[in-house]
Predict the structure of G-protein coupled receptors family 1 profile domain-containing protein.
Amino acid sequence: MASNASTSVWEEFINTKVINILDTLISCYLLLFTTVVGIVGNSVTLIVLCRIGFKDASNIILLSLAGVDLFFLIQLFIRKLSYVIEIFDSFYAEIYRSYTVCYLYVFDLAPVLISISHIVVISTERLLAVFFPLRVCQWFTRKSVTMTLISVYLTWIIALQPWVYSHRRVEWGYNANYNRTYTYLVFTEWYISNAEILTFFGYIIINSVTGMFCLLVATMSCAIAYRLHILTKRRSTMTFKTVVKNSDLDLKVSRMLLVVCVVYCFCNIPSFVIYFGYYTFPVTVKHFELNNFLRHLEEVFMALNCTANFFIYVLMSSKFHGTVIRTFHVQKS
């Protein structure tokens, strides 16, 4: 019995050490590298799309999406700097982490939800574009798209107000491990008194909405892919070429935006696996080290999603690629 108990403790220790090592590799190296690449990529995307102009409604959506993704990556980079600080001083790293978690939490959640809503708008616009090419320009005008995006921003900002500076606060107290004053994160009295409602809204409603959005995007992506397959076959006829020319339906743009939607669905799979794991296997998944590891792994996929769009545009849009070259090309003297 004693041997089995010691073996169990040793296995738990090994598993914890492995999880901590993987968590450090993800948070300190992979995530920081991904965010830096994404910040540069989305900054370039904003510059290029501004140069291309706002005549096309799709450009307005992509410009707004790049701005939201850039904001998310910047705040994620700021929060993950705590792992760099921890290499030099764990005490100050924990203080830094307490303040960033307390005051940047809502700025982590809001851009993710707004970005997801942008993908829904993109998939809806492309679905109508491939099925109703002659009428989509009447439905998705610059004005209607702008008003839709403003509504998306306002909806999520208002919905997340309970988490703005009323969720947690930082307090200082004595810590025996460091033998000095230390920071602690505590829930506010207002949050504790409304914890049941806020927990239901935060973990059930928001996760359910994002899940439904992902399912909706996946369904529309399948319909778009099927329609594009049919249109590509028909495009060999001269009659259809004329129809396509008159309707301004660009199959290349549709394919590019379809890839954006597919990448979004792929990168959000871990979020839903983790979400269902919390409620299906509460004893195992809610282990502290494993919980942190899964949460950071989820952030990696979110960062990859925000970073990937720039490379999709460059590889699949000759117009975007050409504008990038012209914008940053340095002529030899």
Remarks:
- The longest strand covers residues 168-175.
- The domain at 16-325 is CATH 1.20.1070.10 (Rhopdopsin 7-helix transmembrane proteins).
